[in-house]
Amino acid sequence: MKLEDLKHAGLKKWVQEAVALMTPDAVEVCDGTQAEYDRMIKITVEAGLATPLNPEKKPGCVLYRSDPSDVARVENRTFIASEKESDAGPTNHWTPPAELKKTMSALYKGSMKGRTMYVIPFSMGPVGSDIAKIGVQITDSAYVVANMHIMTRVGMKVLEVLGEDGIYVPCFHSVGKPLDTLTLDSREGKRSFKEIDNGKWPCAPMEKKYISHFPETREIWSYGSGYGGNALLGKKCLALRIASVLARDEGWLAEHMLILKLTNPQGEVKYVTGAFPSACGKTNLAMLIPTLPGWTVETVGDDIAWMKFGADGRLYAINPEAGFFGVAPGTNDESNYNAMRACEKNSIFTNCGLTEDGDIWWEMIGHGAPGKEIIDWKGNKRPAPQKDKSPKGEEIAHPNARFTAPAKQCPCIAKEWEDPKGVPISAFLFGGRRPKTVPLVNQAKDWEHGVFMGSIVGSEVTAAIISDQVGQVRRDPFAMLPFCGYHMGDYFKHWLTIGAAHDESKLPKIFFVNWFRKNSDDKFIWPGYGENSRVLAWIFDRCDGKGKSVDTPIGILPTADAIERPDGVSEADMAELLKVDVEGWKKEIADVRKNHYPKFGDKLPKELHAQLDAIEQRLNA
Ligand code: OXD
Ligand code: MN
Predict the structure, then answer these.
(1) What pLDDT band is residue 181 in, cutting at 50, 70 and 90?
(2) CATH architecture of 324-409
(3) Pocket of ligand 1 (CB under 6 A)
(4) What is the pLDDT of residue 595?
């Protein structure tokens, strides 16, 4: 569709202004069709930016390689530009909006020269759902267009819902590499208008990357990166950072949570959501195959939940996304059979290895690679790995290599995953990788205690983010620290306000889970994966006030025999997993008091300090 044909005058003007600033060679409004998707893939293949995979191995799939500086979200280049610094809070990077817009406008000037500007109308959530929101992203990356097709609902239907004056979140995105200034082809000594970056996608250097959010005006400006979370602006930028601000203002919840449908052997259904920091196996949990006989677990969402109250006083959740942007390494038929099936066709792979027979490969995929050679994520030929693992730093696939797969291809997708009303939520789970202290599962005594649990979530840092803290435990309250578009102290307050304003008997019950306890030999005590269904079954029963439990100083724990033990977990292991580690918790409380809560200054709600005091008193009693 052409720009002139847009019916929404405000949208047309906004795009025209962007065209004047970024001076692309052409402008296209995306229609979301398969033909458009195929064309985007073709354009990138012809530009040398993508490799189609062997259709007998991975039909309809393609592999991209990024620049080594562009492999993950860039937290230190992510900005929340609210008018007042105190609204962004100390855990976000803040810059005055006018100053940031000035800096970025200078970067956007001419940034799309030699490229096409794509205008992507997209819906987060089923098109037309009361809970859904519309965004319009402009981008000069065909890779981004193709990914947005999978991750969101793109196209004409969205423009119809938007009408002539509907509200949308405007999103700017440019890879920051105009074609005519930066592509001097040294091999031929002349200017080239083609990509010549050795088959890697274009981007700007780190110090010029900006992932910016303007919460008051509901705008997103992203520059210099082509990587998922920085460039697919519907996901972390709109569905979490901007939506969290909308949710605060409008009395709902926009959370970094998976959504699960659980069915017990009697055929009763409950839906739960769960927040886990990045790289804690959230996608695996979202698609787990239960080992408990008679139980079914299905997926509604794997990363984000938007939840609003229904007329019956219950909280209903939708998955605003339409696809999975999952971490590839470590995913295999054992760890996540359903994700492997979801991405075996019509999917996009980023920064994986390429085998001799035209298939992808990554560390821990479950087998070695065929043939003699493999091409790694940097585009270099290497000996084909016979084993599943590579030495650290020498991986064939980047540790944060990804698959982008349509959710509807997932064998365990719940039939109601696109229900515009959403699904009623019975429980919230919080968790993280905690080798010590935190038990396998712990139910909050009440809403405020649950908010306290969410506020102290922590996990070991892994490769999903660029950080110098890899290996250390980082507290990530509600798994929202990198994704909250406002002050985290106000965010805690919002959760407390939700609790105070609604009938607690209808609110979801809150649980803290930890699949990652280790013994003194540094081995995991709990097998995890499908065996986590045993814990989900206890949670299910607790939502009905059933399930054997014991009240402890730290919360409501299962009794020693409440959760059937999986193979390999001894009685002593179970006791360890469910024990109240009084000394460990005293240290945990002291750490929260000294190192964690002070980060939020005087905006930390007093109710959370009261929770700390109460737990400490109970531990000392
Ligand atoms: C993600 C993340 O990619 O949380 O989902 O980092
Ligand atoms: Mn995530």
Answers:
(1) very low
(2) Beta Complex (2.170)
(3) 73, 229, 278, 303, 464
(4) 92
